[in-house]
Amino acid sequence: MQPKHPPELNPGRPIPKWSSSLSVGNAKLDEQHITLLELGRDLMRLLDTETATQVQIHAALEDIVKQSQLHDAREEKILEVNGCPTLDEHKAAHQTSRAELATLLSDVSRGAEDRAVLSRWVVDWMGHHISENDLPVKDYLRQTPKARTTD
Fold this sequence. Notes:
By secondary structure, the chain is mostly helical. The chain is built from 5 helices and no strands. Helix content is 64%, strand content 0%.
């Protein structure tokens, strides 16, 4: 049986909606950001539904994990090719997020998830990743040198 929880876990802090102000000037990265935001909203809807199963929550979180891994790898490659001076810090932020996501996924796998904690983490991460990690280095994300970067 699923634990009872408030109907809205983060009533005042929704996952950001995509807008041009979030664009890093790279169509593929922007597309991945849009997908991540949509996946985050999907997970939040499940977390706000008492009838959502552990299997559904796990699958939704796993989708976020997979998409974020693809996104982080692409982003890091572009930053590297474009000589971003803060690449190491960017990689460290990605590594921290991957570790936190792995812990959350493990908790869900074991049925030990705390929906409020998971909800807060997803909202915070979705809001933080683009605005605080990517926008400050957007000049290094705009161009993807075709000769040196692969899909």
